[in-house]
UniProtKB/TrEMBL annotation:
Keywords: Disulfide bond, Glycoprotein, Immunoglobulin domain, Membrane, Repeat, Signal, Transmembrane, Transmembrane helix. It is found in: Membrane. It comes from Willisornis vidua (Xingu scale-backed antbird). Residues 601-626 are annotated as: Disordered. Residues 194-276, 287-360, 376-459, 463-556 form the Ig-like domain. Pfam families: fn3, I-set, Ig_3. The keyword Cell inner membrane does not apply. This is Titin-like protein.
Length: 709
């Protein structure tokens, strides 16, 4: 829009201001010059255009007029005050006229509307009305006609695939522009020779490779219009239709040739490309390492195996750093699936380590196994055992551990080899006959890392029993008869048994005997030995696959010694005759565990039968020789005797005695009276001396008599 000041004659004319005082409604007008603006607006025929009065605030009263092309008197168009609007009858020639808030809108604009529009308005300002004017020059443009009036051509010679696409024709003028509908130019061509890509990308000579269980994506691109139709062939057999062929977790059976066939269905033309896809898969599991002694037992054969897979795994042995530094190259030659290395035993230290390194295209991180050559500690051990029923004797030699394992072999005492050499354990089975007793056998052990061989020896012998020649026991006691096998280099299991003096085998469960048995011993206990029935010769036997041994032992059952004889040395009543004091002594020797005192009542007259003996005191210690017995009736005459006892029997009773009367006891009373008299006399003398000492003047002669000297 263009705005500018108009000439003074446009707003000073009295015809412009004649209407405003009448429309002001009695409100005061602001004194001074009225505001005036002028600008230009462009409209298009048939469309709408808005003409603004120009000031910011909408006018309270507005009057629009129009002068065609700026010549002639103005024509009224519309007048308005707030919501009240009036349109002049002849305004329809301009188009559809609308007035809103002082803005004049012409819809469906006509060419006759080109000219000058004048806006006269009263605008509120600080409680008063200010007069304002705006002149607008409206220019009406006419839009161009439809395409087709003039001719334009585009020639593409020669056409190629790069010309494919949409084409448009555009016509423009000052008002607007018109664009034709788009036209698509389609160039038909192809297909070109396909290009095959493989993911993951792993090219190799003659094709591509992939690891088993990988996801392989085959993509084919053959430019063509219309787009190519793709068909995938595996070893000549169709497997997929589409540009991309995804093989999920490819298997070894899916290796081979893959052909991409591209077809242009419009031109009926075809092209193709072929690749070779190799599927690598590792051997099952992991490589295994082992070490064995060579035939001469001087060297060690290190073996590494990892069979299967495609291509075969590549294996190579490497030794410890110290050994490899002695070689010009740190690794041995590589081989496939199996690798063997001969390591001299004499040149190998105990504890040397070796590793087998494996590589395979399908195992990027590689694989390995290892072994350490070492000699087991100690030496071989030999043992012998008999089978059930003693039909065979089995000799066993063991020396476990070590890499490679120790080689063992049995030989007889003369050095003749028996059986084949075996590893770690050697077993020799011999038939039992009379010739095995006393024979010696040797087990030899060899290891490549051990310069000197080792061996163990054993001799098959008949069981050797150890028993006591004689066992003595007191009657009533328990007799223990022991029998055991002496240790030998090859002790075979033997069946052991005891026989009583009547050559009857002693079996478990008999009340007279207790039988206890171990691996190489058997004990017989004779319970509550009786004289003379349990005495005699007992026999212990041991039977093995080599032979039978027997040893005898004599059991002597002695009579239990009787207790010693007892004699009463003192038996006397006390003064009250309700107790007696008894003393005794023993005569001779004998087994003694205690004493028993017995008593009975003696009847009067003596010709009547006395009462039976009863125990007055029992369980008396064997060291005691006296006892005070109470609970007696003074009116009854008693008789006493003493017996010595042991845990087996009682000795002969002592002589029978009756208690003696207590002796006369006057002497103690007289002695007591004399002592009391002496004490009284002494006290009186002391009092007299004290009195004389205090009354010296009164009793001078007594004082001098007692104290002068």
């Amino acid at each position: 829009m263009e705005r500018g000041r108009a000439a003074p004659w446009l707003w000073r004319g009295p015809w412009i201001l004649c209407l405003l005082p009448a429309l002001a409604g009695g409100q005061p007008l602001v004194a001074g010059e009225a505001a005036y603006e002028e600008w230009q607006v462009t409209g298009v025929r048939g469309r709408a255009v808005q003409l603004s009065c120009g000031l910011v605030a909408p006018p309270a009263v507005v009057f629009w007029s129009f002068t065609p092309r700026g010549e002639g008197p103005p024509r009224a168009v519309a007048v308005g005050s707030g919501q009240d609007v009036a349109v002049a009858p002849g305004a329809a020639m301009l188009g559809q006229v609308m007035l809103h808030n002082g803005t004049l809108e012409l819809r469906e604009l006509r060419v006759a509307a080109q000219g000058r529009f004048l806006c006269q308005g009263l605008f509120p300002e600080r409680g008063q009305l200010r007069v304002g004017y705006a002149a607008i020059l409206l220019r009406v443009l006419v839009s161009p006609v439809a395409l087709g009036g003039s001719r334009a051509e585009l020639r593409l010679t020669p056409a190629n695939r790069s010309h494919t696409g949409w084409y448009l024709c555009t016509v423009r003028n000052e008002v607007n522009s018109h664009t034709s509908e788009p036209v698509y130019l389609d160039i038909v061509y192809g297909p070109d020779e396909p290009a095959i890509s493989v993911e993951p990308f792993s090219p190799e000579q003659g094709g591509f490779s992939a690891g088993e269980r990988e996801d392989v994506v085959l993509s084919c691109l053959a430019p063509s219009n219309p787009p190519s139709r793709y068909v995938w062939l595996h070893n000549g057999t169709q497997v997929h239709i589409g540009q991309t062929y995804v093989i999920a977790a490819i298997a070894r059976a899916q290796a081979g040739t893959y052909t991409c066939l591209a077809e242009n269905t419009h031109l009926q033309t075809r092209t193709q490309a072929t690749i070779v896809l190799t599927v690598y898969y590792p051997p099952a599991g992991s490589p295994s390492c082992s070490a064995l002694a060579t035939g001469d037992l001087q060297d060690v054969a290190l073996r590494c195996r990892w069979l299967g897979g495609f291509p075969p795994a590549q294996l190579r042995w490497v030794g410890s750093q110290e050994e490899e530094e002695k070689k010009e190259k740190g690794v041995m030659g590589a081989s496939f699936s199996m690798a063997t290395r001969i390591q001299p035993g004499s040149a190998t230290r105990n504890g040397s380590s070796f590793s087998c390194l494996a590589s395979h295209p399908a195992v990027p991180q590689g694989a390995a196994c290892g072994t350490t050559l070492w000699v087991p500690a100690g030496s071989p051990t030999c043992s012998a055992a008999a089978t059930k029923g003693d039909e065979y004797v089995m000799l066993q030699c063991r020396w476990e551990g070590g890499t490679p394992p120790v080689t063992l072999r049995w030989r007889d005492g003369g050095g003749r080899a028996l059986g084949d050499p075996t590893l770690s354990t050697a077993v020799l089975v011999l038939s039992t006959d009379g010739s095995l007793g006393g024979r010696e056998f040797v087990c030899g052990a060899a290891h490549p890392l051990r310069a000197a061989s080792a061996e163990c020896r054993l001799r098959l012998e008949v069981p050797d029993l150890e028993v006591a020649s004689e066992v003595a026991v007191l009657e009533g006691g328990e007799a223990l008869l022991t029998c055991r096998q002496r240790g030998t280099s090859a002790r075979l299991s033997a069946t052991m048994a005891w026989y009583d003096p009547k050559e009857r085998e002693v079996t478990p469960g008999l009340a007279k005997y207790r039988l206890e048995q171990g691996e190489a011993w058997v004990n017989l206990t004779v319970l509550d030995a009786e004289w003379p029935g349990d005495g005699g010769t007992y026999r212990c036997t041991a039977t093995s696959a080599v032979g039978t041994a027997s040893r005898s032992v004599r059991l002597r059952v002695d009579r239990y010694p009787p207790p010693p004889n007892v004699t009463i040395s003192k038996l006397r009543y006390t003064r009250a005759r309700t107790e007696v004091q008894l003393e005794w002594r023993t005569q001779g020797t004998g087994n003694l565990t205690g004493f028993v005192v017995q008593r009975r009542q003696t009847k009067k007259p003596l010709r009547e039968a006395p009462s039976p003996w009863e125990t007055a005191a029992g369980n008396i210690e064997p060291d005691s020789r006296d006892r005070r017995l109470g609970g007696l009736d003074p009116a009854v005459l008693y008789a006493f005797r003493v017996l010595a006892v042991n845990h087996r029997t009682a000795g002969h009773p002592s002589e029978v005695q009756t208690p003696a009367e207590p002796p006369f006891e006057a002497y103690p009373a007289v002695t007591g009276a004399a002592v009391a008299g002496m004490l009284v006399a002494t006290a009186a003398s002391l009092l007299a001396v004290r009195c004389v000492a205090r009354h010296r003047d009164t009793l001078p002669r007594l004082h001098d008599l007692l104290f002068r000297t």
